[in-house]
Fold this protein.
Amino acid sequence: MDVNDKRQIALELKMLMSVAWKTTTLAYEQWLAREGIDLSGLQSSVLRMVAHEGSYTISELSKRFGIDPSTLVPTVDALQRKGYLSRQRDPSDRRRVLLTLTDAGDQLAKRLPHLIEDDPLLVGIEALGEAKALELIALLSELITAMPDGIQLLHNALPRLLTTGIHEDKLRCKQFLKRP
């Protein structure tokens, strides 16, 4: 495969992954709006993540989400303004600022599904069938672990998946983390 073929494949794959991500995110944000929940998809993900672990720093969350801390700060600020998160100094290390849920944030986090019933991704997976869907997971996992820092990025992202209640031993992508 020559350089132009690789570039075309990379660009096409970027576009396809972007369309899949944007489609499922838009459907989730539309669900939030229908339910009268004034949150973005990222805000709801942050709430669920903090609810699962109890507290996080912005730096720890940014690693889990694979985004720069400066991108996450406005999201955290908005959640704090809405009364769902609070910032508190870590009693064991005063340099660290922990994000914790307020009572209102905890109640809201319990209402937020990880996946809505009519998620377009579910529709697509059903159309693919189990074998192709599992093959897609394997191929994407293999692709990510072949990328620079891919194994570390996958390690960082796995706790987000575990917040859904999926047991770690059931994760198909986990097998790719055992490679040297």
In short: The longest helix spans residues 3-34. DSSP finds eight helices and two strands in the chain. The two ends are 26 Å apart (CA to CA).
